[in-house]
Input
Amino acid sequence: MSRRAVIEARGVSKRFVSHSSRATQLKERFVKGLTTRDRGPSEEFWALRDVDVVVGEGETVGLIGPNGAGKSTLLKVLAGILRPTSGEVEVQGRIASLLELGAGFNGELTGRENVYLNAALLGLPRREVDGLLESIVDFSEQAPRIDDPVKHYSSGEYVKLAFSIAVHVDPDVLLVDEVLAVGDEAFARKCLAKIEQFQQDGRTILFVTHSLDLVTQLCTRGVVVDHGRVQYDGDPAFAVGTLRKILGTDRPVGEPSGPAEKGGVVVHAAHVSASAGGPARGRFAAGEPFHLRVECEVLPSREVYPGEVGAVVMGAGDIPVWSMRTSKGHGLPAEPGRYLVDFAVDAVPPLNGAFVVGVQVDHAETGLPLTARRFDDAVWVETGDLPGLLAVPATTTVTRA
Amino acid sequence: MSAPALAADRAALASARASAQGRIRWDLLRQLVSKDLKVKYQGSALGFVWSLANPLFMLGIYYVIFTYVFDAGVPDYHVYLMAGLLAFTAFSQGVGNASTSVVGNAGLVKKVRFPLAVLPLAGVGFAMVQLALQLPVLLVIALLSGISFFGPQFLLLVPALGLLLVLTIALGTIASALNVRYRDTSHFVEIFMLVWFWTNPILYPVGLVKDQLGDLFWVYFLNPTATIVATVQRAVYVEATPIGDDGRPVQVLADPGYLFYLRNLALGFLVAGLLLLLARRVFRRYQVDFAEDL
Ligand SMILES: Nc1ncnc2c1ncn2[C@@H]1O[C@H](COP(=O)(O)OP(=O)(O)OP(=O)(O)O)[C@@H](O)[C@H]1O
Ligand SMILES: [Mg+2]
Output
């Protein structure tokens, strides 16, 4: 991984001073006197704090975080639009940034005119644009409307044209902020294909997105930002897991996070460890023994049913990776009391990523769910450093064809 | 990507491009000016006519007032007036356009990285394009009025317009940067231009000033726009002391020779050059915060 660093941000902090106190009037300045430097009480806000991000050539990095975390601010600092309050930023090569829907478009101008203007802004000489125009228009699918003023475009059409320009200016570094979400599925696919081609060309991509599946799908790295700080930087799946934890979306919506009390069964806790009763563990390597102990209680209510206990280990996007289940007739008895259910796995499979555990108790006879609970303390498994949910050993050879 | 040579090439290319992204580019400037032209005169095939309408209208008003209400006493007054008015209008509009250029393009400044100094330049460029459209009209009118400006003095237009360009860029750039922090700068500029207008020999013959100031006449030309206006008049109006209505010569222009103008132009370039250096400093200092202040 000794790739040439293309983006280097070291110790970057960005402080915003509240808007009202920045821009003022000359008039006021004269009234207050030119000597007073006091611009009234100003409110400070640190949008970025000590951020270190180094992106190597050819990496595709997903920048994720809650709203207001500082992602756009970081992109703007990297794009050279905002000056960091402290710290250093260095980016090698031509940057194309798509920070907002059709930024740099002028609504009055036609699509074609905007292509020229935008390309010029991104640093492309006119004669080069002449050669690229057809390809840009084709990719954007806006050929029939290219001579209409862009103020009449829909937001999707807008973005298609803008994205098409950005990828055609042959950037070394592509910075994208959320905008891709606007296109329809067909265009989204095309964008993905383009991004994949970019990856193969060894270009560097940094994009902000709220569609976390895109991160696991596309990125070689995920960076989680929250409250202006980098909370995680590494494997995309781990990054997504970390963010889900910050957001609290690792629990299904509407599901109580406390013990569920349906049908008189409560799941109190789940412990992950290496052996029965051993110390709690979060991180596993492939091949290590894995043990899950679930504490439940059958409550002394009017109706008591026998239950079957199941546990699912789920990856990013709640994809079940493997499930475990008490065997028929050997689940919870229909008898009030506290029970420990142990699931033992001899060897953790060669996985990569962050996983959560879901526990569900079903009616042993009807199969209807009695209770379910999710444990967001992720189980992290790391096997090798190649991306992919599953580490599959492969032998590779290179021969001259 | 495995060949190290290729990687080195790519690195070199990348760094060349990074620096190209920071430099002012003609292509971009041209695009921005043509954007402004398209947006302003969009949909009106008469755009060209519109760009002439404003100065011609002003010209008409001044002409009527200073011929029939107060008699300026200048023969071929319309040519004299137009020469000064077009030059000064290009200056005041150039600075005015530039002053709002950064704030007016806030969307761009906040979202796209490009050399920001092209914004005030484009504002100035817009005014200069208009001047370029207006000048031929002036020349045609001068010809129709029987003034033959074909002569060596016509070449004075070159340094005069050069000075006009440098000065407008310098002040426009300063105004554009200040206007981001102090949003009323552009209003100040407007008012300032109204006052400044009168410090130039546009409506009145410069000979009048010479009479008033005597030995201190040179002070009047510390103002570079006075030099620009006077030089353009010398180039196009030609005759320094034409014969007035009453049969006596009227001193309209400051000087019948060249040296006077060249000296003042040199002084003007010195002033404008210093202002340009100042503008560069101010703009560089302020531009890093534009995206934040907008
Ligand atoms: N110019 C500004 N002046 C003051 N505060 C600002 C400015 N720009 C951004 N902020 C603040 O900085 C914080 C980070 O903003 P930023 O746009 O980077 O968030 P984000 O991570 O992109 O969020 P989102 O997912 O909603 O786009 C926000 O709280 C925002 O209010
Ligand atoms: Mg954002």
